[in-house]
Amino acid sequence: METGTTGVAAAAAPAGPLHSHTLNYHHSHYPPSQHHAILSSTSILIIIISGISVIVLVLIFLIMAILRRIKSAKTRSTSFKDNGCVNNNSCRFSSHHTITFTSSPDVRGGCLYGSNLGHKSPRKHGVVQVFTYKELEVATDGFSETKVIGRGAYGVVYKGILADGTVAAIKMLHRQGKQGERAFRIEVDLLSRLHSPYLVELLGYCADQHHRLLIFEFMSNGALQNLLHHKQSQPLDWGTRLQIALDCARALEFLHEHTIPAVIHRDFKCSNILLDENFHAKVSDFGFAKMGSEKINGQISTRVMGTAGYLAPEYASTGMLTTKSDVYSYGMVLLQLLTGRIPVDTKRPPGEHVLVSWALPRLTNREKVGEMVDPALRGLYSRKDLIQVAAIAAMCVQPEPDYRPLMTDVVQSLIPLVKNLS
Ligand SMILES: Nc1ncnc2c1ncn2[C@@H]1O[C@H](COP(=O)(O)OP(=O)(O)OP(=O)(O)O)[C@@H](O)[C@H]1O
Ligand SMILES: [Mg+2]
């Protein structure tokens, strides 16, 4: 370097007196040759010393990194062992936003996963618990037939008593394959984070070997579907129907507007609305739910899932999903509360098979609106309320999604009606 600099300076310097000046620039007390010898031996020494220091430092860093790795590996294996999940990659599942769930204590192969959707951490008192299959077997008398409270397309629901005395609804899923696993994961992921008095609470889950079970708070009055359409149950009165309509509207309002990103339920229907001992309604079944973060131009392109009769027409035909698809399904539930009819009933006379087509022209016709009211109400309802609820239902089931209201608007329209009841 030094030689180079001198060289450049020398090359740049004009000949004559200035040249000697250039040499003097070194402030040298030694003859040039001696000067270079001393300089080179010093710099060699410096180079050797700094080389050794660098090597020593690198070695120290390497040793520290190795020690840290060994330490963290020990900690991780201890925590997996504590969860009973000793081994491998299958114990973790990564999604866009990942945290790691603990699996059932005696899971060996398949642990769970979770995703932080930017919601609050699980509730303080009532953290979602992890159960072993054995514990749930004990809770349900060995999954006895006498404990069955319902059967759905994807599993059997048992009434059980947990070790701490809590009465629970234990849903054993028999959905196999990727789709079943996905639905299970979504339900656990979402319900671990979404807490609202209008959603059925997830108490825990079990992912013990191939078993997949969900443990929910027990809703003693069961599904709205049974109360509305099974003749053996006492008909729901007008006030209770309005209260249920408001509870459900609040549930969807929470999912669409108070959750970031918004959640689209995708399977909102009467069998997924459960009633507690006071007939307060809560929404369940989040296996098909979609997060608004998956949107493209405000829509989610997806495989059409859900239940025939509740599907918004644009979603059924194109698979493009928005929160307005849930609003349509909500409109269908409102129609059932008003009429006591199911969405598709081929036993009815021609022209009345499809509830929405039969109801739409009547909903906004003051003369005809009374004709469609559930005869089980025996005329015990407020005509003024009926006209308002029918108008809300008509808006919700509009074929054009943009004309459907937001769930906040539905909530605001129903509040005064429910207030007036009391
Ligand atoms: N938390 C709960 N408390 C009380 N009963 C429940 C609970 N969850 C489910 N049930 C009962 O079990 C039944 C079956 O529920 P499940 O969710 O498996 O199927 P579904 O909603 O009826 O139909 P689908 O499979 O199409 O969703 C419900 O209709 C209800 O009667
Ligand atoms: Mg259900």
UniProtKB/TrEMBL annotation:
One of its GO terms (molecular function) is protein serine/threonine kinase activity. Residues 143-418 form the Protein kinase domain. ATP binds at residue 171. Keywords: ATP-binding, Kinase, Membrane, Nucleotide-binding, Serine/threonine-protein kinase, Transferase, Transmembrane, Transmembrane helix. The chain crosses the membrane at residues 44-67. InterPro entries: Kinase-like_dom_sf (IPR011009), Prot_kinase_dom (IPR000719), Protein_kinase_ATP_BS (IPR017441), Ser/Thr_kinase_AS (IPR008271). It comes from the Eukaryota. Belongs to the protein kinase superfamily. This is Protein kinase domain-containing protein.
